[in-house]
Amino acid sequence: MPNIKTLAQREEKEVRFTPGHTLCAGCAEPMVVRTVLNAIEEPVVAASPTGCLEVATSRFPGTAWNVPWIHVAFENAGAVISGVEAAYRALTKTGVVKKRIRFVVFGGDGGTYDIGLQALSGALERGHDFLYVCVNNEAYMNTGVQRSSATPRCASATTSPVGDEIPGKPQDRKDLTEIVVGHHVPYVGQAAVSHLIDLANKVERAMKFDGPKFLNVLTTCPLGWRTPRDSAIVQSKLAVETRYWPLYEVIEGKYKINYKPKQHVPVEEWLKTQGRFRHLFRDPKGKERIAEFQAAVDRHWNDLLRKEQCLSGDGAEQG
Amino acid sequence: MRKVMTGHKAVAEAMRQIEPDVVAVYPITPQSEIAEYYADYVHDGIVHTELVPVESEHSAMSACVGAAAAGARVMTATSSQGLALLVEVLYIAAGMRLPIVTALANRSLSAPINIHCDHSDAYLARDAGAFQVFCESAQEAYDYTLIAQRIAEHAKVRLPGIVNLDGFALTHTSQVVEPLEDAVAKKFVGAFQPVHPLLDTDRPVTWGPFAMPDYYFELKRAQQAAMEEIPAVFLEVQRAYAKTSGRAYGGFVDKYHLDDADRALVVLGSTAGTAKVAVDALRAKGERVGLLKVWLYRPFPYHEVAAALTHVKHVGVLDRAISFGAMGALYSDVATSLLRSATRPALHNYIYGLGGRDITAEQLEEVLTGLGKARPDEVLRYIGLRE
Ligand SMILES: Cc1ncc(C[n+]2csc(CCOP(=O)(O)OP(=O)(O)O)c2C)c(N)n1
């Protein structure tokens, strides 16, 4: 499994994602991209849907990508990588391409949970050999922090603002990781930018499988979350410690929670550090809403524990 | 060898001979059989093609773009709503200079939903940056599939192309077609030479970047320059095809009894066949009528259309789709063509055949006979409409 040293050595040998892009100060996305690219040994071809990452890394005539990379549109990264991978299979058959190449998509939550879900689902169902990494900062950051279906309940976003009548996003976020599990692909995982070695390990484990692989990676956005620019790791870590964002994987249908926080840290600790939840701590009804939020977090965590118990790799399902 | 086959089969045969590395398709009437024939070829191991049976037309064109950028020869086929769904990505294929050929079985657009032929779908893709040809017969659909592939992949062009064939009228009717021998067709199309393929991982390239006002305009101008290369390439490939097949397609337009005509029709697609019957009937009565069929619709051959029509007195331009709120799209192109001519015909615009409404030779005879009786007044006239 890659440690910090091997990741650094690989980057020294070949910088796959270069500095000089225009992502915001404090954006966590480059850490995810570098870690994923460095965790893969073979040559990589990458694709991205429209979003912050694409816009900030490919400004003509410059580019931050030192691997072949393609952006086509917002809703079609799953289909684009399907085509790239199909071309690879065809050209391997005819002997034009001779080496092993790996395929990775880096897509935002909007381009993955929402507009791109159909293309992603199609690609997963058809069984293309690629890794899809959702760089999940929980809103449409590129277009000015509009809500996505990955935006958590109560969060303030520009299309789910804190109004006098409706205070923030009324709905829970969609559980995309579990939606992908429903496609019965060999590898599905959830990771966070605060746990980079865990992320690298997951990439390495995932890449051992042929077929579609999916990683939902929590990243942070100082602009959209309204957090200090130097807080990406702290924010992401709190999300994991509060069990808001469990680190787990589902390998060939078997669940494994990679990290179980020893103490119960209330989700309030995570909420209170972000401007997008500030109203919860001012509003008289805030306490109630935080309690509801906590209940949702507990429910999901307990569901996950049960899934791990019932569907773990140690033969628990027999008997 | 002459064979009887449908337009579908003719296109599928040409595709089999081209043998793209990747075909990504989604079914829609009246296109579906092209995809089905091709799936048979793949599943029977007749071609090496990777078939990507996508979940939508948007994904079909997206997969084509990914595959073409990766370095593969790719094709697809669609109709109507399918084209409408994929058109977003067609603009991108053109912007990326990817030679993806799409067989478009022409069909009306919703609402109301209707599966039959008109040209609303082709017009929808008019400004996408793909070249477009229209076919009169299954033979032309076969021939132009091969021709379009070679134009699309020409080093000076490298743009997507659309081969239009009228839904049902061409796709579902059986006609005599004379395909080339497999080896001859393969040789005509030649090997595919990708440019900066993604799969060349030793030389990484960035495809589909973000361009601000400082570059976007120049990049679009460069794309237009590629489009401007098409006419010369089109003629060159037509000539090469004539040598290979013995079928001479002489130019961007097909002129039928036009040289001495004083009245004429301008049409796209299979209606040309019907119009020829009408012209023949009137010629038999000694009337000087003719027909101009446009093969190359985009880029539009303004000069050749003008040259063919300046001496004619009255021209009826037939559009098989409404450009809501404007005169017909073909009419506007013909009018633009004639703008600079010293002498020019009076132009009349007819809308016909929407949603598969039949057009008969008798109706076209009537149009030709009536041409010149009404004032040319930039008014839409309708053929075969109950009002
Ligand atoms: C069809 C279409 N609709 C809308 C847009 C506008 N748009 C571009 S990026 C984006 C949001 C991207 O959000 P996300 O995928 O979450 O990535 P992020 O930028 O937050 O990392 C939107 C709405 C578009 N480019 N294309």
Please tag this protein with its features.
heterodimer; A: 319 residues; alpha/beta; Rossmann fold; 8-stranded mixed beta sheet; 8 strands; 37% helix; globular; B: 387 residues; 2 domains; 7-stranded mixed beta sheet; 6-stranded mixed beta sheet; 12 helices; 16 strands; 40% helix; binds thiamine diphosphate; Pyruvate:ferred/Flavod_OxRd (chain B); PFOR_II (chain B); oxidoreductase (chain B)
Largest sheet, strands/sense/barrel of chain B: 7 strands, mixed
Q: Spell the H/E element sequence of chain A.
A: HHEHEHEHHEHEHEHHEEHH
| Overall number of structural domains of chain B | 2
Biggest chain contact? A-B, 48 and 44 residues
Span between termini of chain B: 48 Å
Give a concise summary.
The complex is a heterodimer of chains A (319) and B (387). Chain A has 319 residues and is an alpha/beta fold.
What does this structure look like?
The complex is a heterodimer of chains A (319) and B (387). Chain A has 319 residues and is of the alpha/beta class. Chain A is 37% helix and 13% strand. Chain A has 12 helices and 8 strands. In chain A, strands 2-1-3-4-6-5-7-8 form an 8-stranded mixed sheet, sandwiched between helices. In chain A, helix 1 packs across helix 2 (29-39), helix 2 crosses helix 8 and helix 4 (77-93) packs parallel to helix 6 (117-126). Chain A is globular and about 70 Å long. Chain B is an alpha/beta fold. In chain B, the strands form 3 sheets. In chain B, strands 3-2-4-5-7-6-13 form a 7-stranded mixed sheet, with helices on both faces. In chain B, strands 10-12-11-14-15-16 form a 6-stranded mixed sheet, with helices on both faces. In chain B, strands 1-8 form a two-stranded antiparallel ribbon. In chain B, helix 4 links the parallel strand 4 (74-78) and strand 5 (101-106). The mean pLDDT of chain B is 97. Chains A and B meet through strand 1, strand 2, helix 4 and helix 6 of A and helix 3, helix 4 and strand 9 of B. Strand 2 (69-71) of chain A pairs parallel with strand 9 of chain B, so a sheet runs across the interface. The complex binds thiamine diphosphate. Thiamine diphosphate (TPP) is lined by residues 50-53, 74-75, 108-111, 135, 137, 140-143, 148 of chain A. Thiamine diphosphate (TPP) binds at residues 50-53, 74-75, 108-111, 135, 137, 140-143, 148 of chain A. Chain B: One of its GO terms (molecular function) is oxidoreductase activity, acting on the aldehyde or oxo group of donors.
